[in-house]
Design goal:
The protein folds into 4 domains: about 160 residues, no CATH class; about 45 residues; about 150 residues, 2-Layer Sandwich (Alpha-Beta Plaits), CATH 3.30.70.270; about 250 residues, TIM Barrel (Alpha-Beta Barrel). It is built from 22 helices and 21 strands. The longest helix has about 55 residues. It is an alpha/beta fold and about 675 residues long.
Length: about 675
């Protein structure tokens, strides 16, 4: 609950009253102490004087044994203030004469206790009386009696309290008068100026703070409050200057100087209004740079920033006066082409942009080959608002990226549904990892000469709501969103665990091959993840084979060679998957530390009619002393062709589809006497 506002004047008054009352009470307590002390001293002095004045008459009365004279003598003592009674005793202790002023008034018990504490030791005073003008031979006087005077301590206390009552009211009156005076003074010279400053602060316009500077009163121009106001005004002036700079920067990307998203939205909105009036079209191009993360990760962010600036300049050159180039952030750019008259015209502009973008860049000592994926949205066909056009062009860009590097695509309505499916799939993939919905199927790899099972390939499956989802449905989404990295890490973990379980359960060492995606291969934790998993499950490294696609290797060949050398040095097997579908050169292939090449199923499916590529791969593998695996074998004719050409290992539906672990174990481990023995 929000705390209610409390006036500074009210707080100040409460503080002053509290402080003044505290000090008033403290002073009053001191006054009580001093008054009690003075009263006791005065009483003690009075008692001595009283005894001195009545001593001789009392001696005369006792010596003459004149009780009437004695009574008259001590009767005069009762007239002294606060005396309650007097007593004359003879030398033997017998009473001679006594007088009193009557019984004391009835008072509460606590009052009696206070009186006893204050004056209990002064309640009575006595004086020994001696025979007049007589001293024996030893110089001693003869005792003839005793005079004792008693005081009414309750009456003393009552008189003291009466005296203090007036003092208390006087002290309180002074305290409240002082509080009033101080409150007025503080309010006039401190609280009121602060309140005016607060009112002035409320009137400050956040957009133009320097227009409403705080007022400085003459009475505070040369004190601390004046200094505070002066400093605040300086801050407001500096803030106004900074805000003007920020206002200019708010619409520009700080790195490239291009319009940012805010200015782009304003520009698109204005262009839409103009297009409505003129009944014309315009295009919006969403550009995402391909493999920009590789540049940042391998060359550093400084080179990455240089790269983005060069791309921005190239886009401005290519677009020229026919549109506006903006940067949304990261490696995403947007081109508003307001002079586009048709989709064909938009396609021509995109081709021109790609030609300009694909020019190699020299960044310090590095040569970078830019590439991009471009999505196209046309107004008004693909959206009537700026946000819709950007979103639809973004969706089209993802469609282009799925088709490969340097591709472009127009937005189509069905893409929106695909994008929604992709978002739902992305969320479900996160849940699948947390809920252990993934599992591995295993496809056997056979020696094509002997027919023995020599290994298997682990293939991920997603079991959701009682059904298996094909990897083709979720792997592309996982790769686009980066979830493929934790999924790949899970595959490594499960594969090592499975190898260890088979070793314990069947006393067999069955090699497992696992696929590593491009994003996972580029991740810096790949090699440590593989090594740690193998160490954790205590498996021989040669039992785990890492399959890398040819395209993944060619994205950054130098970095790929370093990682592969690290894996090979640790003893892991390395295979190039889908060989022949990429664009690697033989010079690079010779440098790659690989053990195995896999003939892509696309080439195997053409056998035996189209056999040129498969024959070349087999010949190349033999020359490089590599093991060759043919995948996707589906019929006997393909098998016979491969056997005749000396292909060592094969896999495919002709032998077996990927199997659940229980079925694979039953078919190929428990019942296969030819399985390899455990590697020691």
């Amino acid at each position: 609950m929000k705390e209610s506002f409390k006036s500074l004047t009210w707080k100040q008054t409460v503080l002053l009253v509290s402080s003044t009352l505290f000090f008033a009470v403290a002073i009053f307590l001191i006054e009580i102490f001093l008054l009690v002390t003075d009263t006791r001293e005065e009483l003690s002095l009075t008692q001595r004087e009283l005894i001195d004045s009545f001593e001789q008459p009392a001696i005369n009365a006792i010596w003459a044994l004149d009780d009437l004279l004695a009574a008259q003598t001590i009767q005069g003592i009762l007239k002294v203030k606060h005396v309650s009674s007097a007593l004359l005793e003879l030398e033997d202790g017998s009473r001679f004469v006594s007088v009193n002023n009557g019984a004391p008034a009835a008072n509460p018990e606590f009052f009696i206790k206070i009186s006893s504490e204050l004056f209990g030791d002064l309640k009575e005073v006595s004086r020994s009386l001696y025979r007049p003008f007589y001293t024996d031979a030893n110089g001693n006087k003869e005792l003839i009696g005793t005079l004792t005077v008693f005081y009414d301590t309750q009456e003393l206390t009552s008189a003291l309290i009466s005296s203090l009552r007036f003092s208390l009211w006087a002290t309180l009156a002074r305290a409240f008068l002082l509080t009033l005076v101080l409150s007025v003074v503080f309010h006039r010279f401190l609280t009121q100026p602060i309140a005016k400053i607060s009112e002035a602060i409320d009137k400050i316009d956040p957009e133009s703070p320097a227009k409403n500077l705080l007022p400085v009163t003459r009475s505070h121009s040369n004190d601390e409050l004046g200094v505070v106001i002066s400093k605040l005004n300086q801050i407001l002036a500096q803030f106004d200057t900074t805000q003007n700079k920020l206002r200019k920067m708010a619409t520009r990307d700080p790195l490239t100087g291009l319009p940012n998203r805010t200015l782009l939205l304003e520009t698109i909105t204005v262009t839409i209004q103009r297009a409505k009036l003129q009944e014309c079209r315009f295009a919006l191009l969403f550009i995402d740079l391909d493999r920009f993360k590789n540049v940042n990760d391998s060359l550093g962010h400084d080179i990455g920033d240089q790269f983005l600036v060069r791309v921005a300049r190239n886009l401005e050159i290519a677009v020229g006066q026919s549109g506006t180039v903006a940067r949304l952030g990261g490696d995403e750019f947007v081109v508003l082409a307001d002079s586009i008259e048709s989709p064909n015209h938009a396609a021509e502009l995109v081709d021109k942009l790609l030609i300009q973008l694909n020019v190699p860049m020299q960044l310090n000592e590095h040569t970078v080959h830019p590439a991009a994926s471009i999505g196209i949205a046309i107004y008004p066909d693909d959206g009537l608002r700026a946000e819709d056009l950007i979103r639809h062009a973004d969706i089209a860009m993802y469609s282009a990226k799925a088709a490969g590097s340097n591709q472009w695509a127009f937005f189509k309505p069905q893409m929106t549904e695909r994008a929604a499916v992709r978002l739902r799939t992305e969320a479900s993939l996160h849940d699948a990892l947390e809920n252990s919905e993934f599992l591995l199927h295993f496809q056997p790899k056979l020696d094509l000469k002997s027919g023995e099972v020599v290994g298997c390939e682990a293939l991920i499956r997603w079991q959701k709501d009682g059904r298996l989802i094909s990897p083709a449905s979720f792997i592309p989404v996982a790769e686009e969103t980066g979830i493929i990295i934790p999924i790949g890490r899970w595959v490594i973990e499960q594969s090592c665990k499975t190898i260890q379980q088979w070793k314990v359960k069947y006393n067999l060492a069955m090699p497992i091959a696992i696929n590593v995606s491009s994003q996972q291969f580029q991740d810096s934790s790949l090699v440590p993840d593989i090594k740690q998993a193998a160490l954790r499950y205590q498996i021989a490294p040669e039992l785990l084979e890492i399959e890398i696609t040819e395209t993944s290797l060619m994205n950054d060949i130098e970095s790929a060679i370093i990682k592969l050398n690290q894996l090979k040095a640790a003893g892991f097997g390395i295979a190039v998957d889908d060989f022949g579908t990429g664009y690697s050169s033989l010079s690079y292939l010779r440098r790659l530390p690989i053990n195995t090449m896999k003939i892509d199923r696309g080439f195997v499916s053409d056998l035996p009619q189209e056999s040129a590529i498969a024959s070349t791969i087999l010949m190349l593998g033999k020359q490089l002393d590599l093991s060759i695996v043919a995948e996707g074998i589906e019929n006997e004719q393909q098998l016979e062709w491969l056997q005749k050409r000396g292909c060592e290992i094969g896999q495919g539906f002709y032998f077996s589809k990927p199997l659940a672990i229980d079925t694979f174990e039953a078919n190929y481990l428990a019942a296969n006497p030819n399985a390899r023995e455990t590697i020691s």
